[in-house]
Amino acid sequence: MSLGGTWRRVATGAAARRGRRLRPALALGCVLLAARAAAASDGAPALRLVAYAETADGARVAAEHAGEAINPASVVKLATTLWALERLGAAHRFETRVASSGVLDPATGVLAGDLHVRGGADPDFHVENALLVAEALNGAGVREVRGDLVVDDRFWIGWEGGAERREGDADRRARAMAERLRRALDPATWSREARAAWRRTASRRVARTPPEVHVRGARRGTAPAGARDLVVHRSNPLAMTLKRLNVHSNNDIERLGATLGPPAALAAELAARWDLEPAAVRLDTLSGLGRNRLPVRAIGRLLAALEEVAVRERLDVADLVAVSGCDAGTLRFLPGLADAPAGSVIAKTGTLTVTDGGVTALAGWAQTAAGPLRFVVAVPRSGARVEAARRAEARWLQGLAERHGGLRARPCGARAGYSDDDARAVVVD
Description:
The protein is α+β, with helices and mostly antiparallel strands. The chain has two domains: 14-89 and 240-402, Beta-lactamase, CATH 3.40.710; 95-235, D-tyrosyl-trna(Tyr) Deacylase, Chain: A (3-Layer(bba) Sandwich), CATH 3.50.80. It is 33% helix and 20% strand. The strands form three sheets. Strands 4, 5, 6, 7, 8, 9, 10 and 15 form an eight-stranded mixed sheet that branches. Strands 2-1-14-13-12 form a five-stranded antiparallel sheet, sandwiched between helices. Strands 3-11 form a two-stranded antiparallel ribbon. Helix 1 (14-40) runs antiparallel to helix 10, helix 2 (76-88) packs antiparallel against helix 6 (238-247) and helix 2 (76-88) packs parallel to helix 9 (296-312). The chain is elongated. The chain starts with 13 loop residues before the first helix and ends with a strand.
């Protein structure tokens, strides 16, 4: 995203300069008052907005309680995105290896022994990826396994829903993943969702016959020292995975912690980076679930840091986050953005309905006639009044854009596709 736009400032005397300083503040005050009045029209207490916005060069153009630390909900995913890109790089691919501890009869395609999965902590492995693995196993001559499919604790398939829904028992979790993969490899055991995944895959890859590998059982375990790799699956590049996770605000972004570290480590890194008191930054999860805390102004710094790493990785922030009018993700729930010029808002939503009394949040970039703006707006303690809070945020954003000439269209960036768009599974020689 080009963020080098410069504000035009014309000095025509002290009075004019004071006028220019006051007009945006007065306009912002009107927008906030209108939002509060509308929210209170049903007799409910007025919603309290927390907001901050700045230009590409860091000049503040709007602030409302910007010194506070808030629970940013799923806006935390932007911090996780930054951490992943800086630690791993946009081109990083997660590797999942499938090995054999038995003897393969090439004439019958029967493996007498177990099939072992050495997980690479791929956060975005699904039925479509299992089909790639099955196809590669068929290419290696494997069609039936007269043993078990054995997976370790660094392999997952399908979504779990983050910390609030994930199975807490490691053995049950791994056995469930092993069974999911076993069924995904064998069309005879496909669920309705697996059949739909095959139809999508077949249409994109012009395939006619599904690959199939029949496996007797499924369990948790680790590959023995003598296991021989048969197939290696390499995921989409990290940037593509992050785009998918952010667009749909998927809480399984937490799986990146298996590679990067715990939330507390990220919190400590952010506090040190921006010279903040450690108590001002708290992360319970890498997804935004739980009681997290980030200072509003620090979220502006987070957005600037994401721009910097995107440039280094030869990306646009639109390649990483949902884009209005382009991605069918959580931005569609924000009133008013449906009519905004395509690409004009690039942002991450955040919503909690119970934790900390509930919160809605929105943080990202707005392309205006006067240049791009970074912004964050949130409604703490919005509870069950999510829709009213979103309307208030939308009005604030629209008012901000209007004071800078209105929103302007820009390129959509990379699309949020499928988990196998650029993934590969190859036979190990």
